[in-house]
Q: What sequence folds into this?
């Protein structure tokens, strides 16, 4: 996993972020350092909101699942007046090769989202994704191993959306068709012909989703096992694999939709397809969800993030931005130390939030920021 300076990819960096009206953040111009940015303060001050703003620039989604209304600061209603919409704006300048990028996002409670990339409006969200290669860890990710299959699918899909435009657009088409079919299944009376009209699209798009996920997992599985062993300080014992409920082929999915139609009508939703597939993790052949310790599960989650970072770098030739939201509080001393040893060998820009900056075991190339009541203040640079 170690690289020489000649082998390192070109880092992708956020050089400036301006935010107005986002969550509890005061209007700011945030100028981070090129390597490690340690953002600390008490809980509830806005540390995670700053990371959420950076992530939103990359993904156009809240990693907390927040709506537009929740992202826009409530305080703006007082100045805008009760009859005026609340609004917020994010403006990011990004250092990239061969050309830098400027991204601007406007959110409003009354009008559709506005997105500009280098002064132009992207055709769609899927066309925009991948512009800002970024990997995010947040405390909710600790449920990736033990939580619902949806969390594991979302992890895989988020990575694929950044590296495969076909996957991103296909996933959007599949989700639209799935929502429409489910709506038809709940209609009264049910129009069976209308329900079945979505089957061909679900089968063709679903086959692409399933096959693409399976290929990606086969590629990154050895890297995940290696990183898990390094962070956990124990031999590589982890295996992972894609476990579809139905073979990801057009014919198999089409047949499954047909044979499960009666049950879908009774349930009121579509049960079969890649939206119900599983990603399995195993330690020494046993399901990690049931047999891995809390420490081992944390090692697996961080290994997934390291593998995600490496895959984005391999595909794009650029070191992605890494966001780590309160990672140290989730780790024991040994795993924390080994994680930062690994991060020190990587070449990208990193943002870390914490309530205890002394837990961030980094000395070189470090810029510290304190967040208090939504105000972000730079404290200094250590070299």
A:
């Amino acid at each position: 996993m170690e690289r020489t300076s000649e082998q390192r990819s070109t880092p992708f960096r956020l050089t400036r972020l301006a935010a107005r009206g986002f969550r509890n953040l005061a209007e700011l111009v945030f100028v981070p350092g090129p390597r490690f940015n340690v953002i600390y303060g008490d809980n509830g001050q806005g540390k995670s909101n700053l990371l959420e703003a950076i992530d939103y620039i990359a993904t156009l989604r809240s990693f907390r699942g927040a709506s537009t209304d929740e992202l826009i600061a409530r305080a703006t209603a007082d100045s805008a007046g009760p009859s005026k919409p609340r609004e917020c704006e994010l403006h990011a300048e990004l250092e990239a090769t061969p050309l830098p990028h400027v991204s601007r996002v406007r959110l409003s409670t009354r009008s559709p989202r506005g997105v500009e990339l280098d002064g132009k409006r992207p055709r769609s969200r899927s066309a925009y994704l991948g512009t800002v290669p970024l990997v995010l860890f947040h405390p909710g990710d600790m449920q990736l191993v033990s939580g619902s299959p949806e969390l594991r699918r979302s992890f895989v899909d988020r990575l694929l959306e950044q590296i495969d435009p076909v996957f991103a657009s296909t996933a959007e088409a599949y989700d639209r068709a799935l929502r429409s079919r489910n709506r038809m299944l709940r209609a009264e009376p049910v129009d069976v012909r209308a329900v079945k009209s979505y089957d061909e699209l679900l089968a063709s798009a679903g086959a692409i989703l399933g096959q693409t996920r399976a290929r990606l997992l086969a590629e990154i599985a050895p890297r995940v096992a290696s990183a898990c062993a390094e962070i956990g300080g124990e031999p590589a014992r982890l295996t992972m694999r894609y476990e579809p409920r139905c073979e990801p082929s057009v014919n198999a999915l089409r047949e499954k939709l047909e044979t499960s139609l009666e049950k879908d009508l009774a349930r009121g939703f579509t049960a079969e397809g890649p939206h119900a597939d599983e990603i399995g993790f195993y330690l020494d052949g046993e399901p990690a969800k049931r047999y891995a310790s809390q420490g081992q599960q944390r090692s697996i989650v961080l290994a997934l993030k390291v593998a995600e970072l490496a895959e984005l770098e391999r595909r794009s030739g650029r070191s992605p931005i890494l966001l780590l939201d309160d990672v140290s509080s989730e780790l024991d001393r040994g795993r924390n130390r080994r994680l930062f040893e690994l991060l020190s060998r990587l070449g990208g820009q990193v943002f870390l939030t914490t309530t205890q900056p002394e837990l961030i075991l980094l000395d070189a190339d470090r810029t510290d920021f304190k967040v208090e009541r939504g105000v972000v203040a730079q404290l200094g640079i250590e070299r």
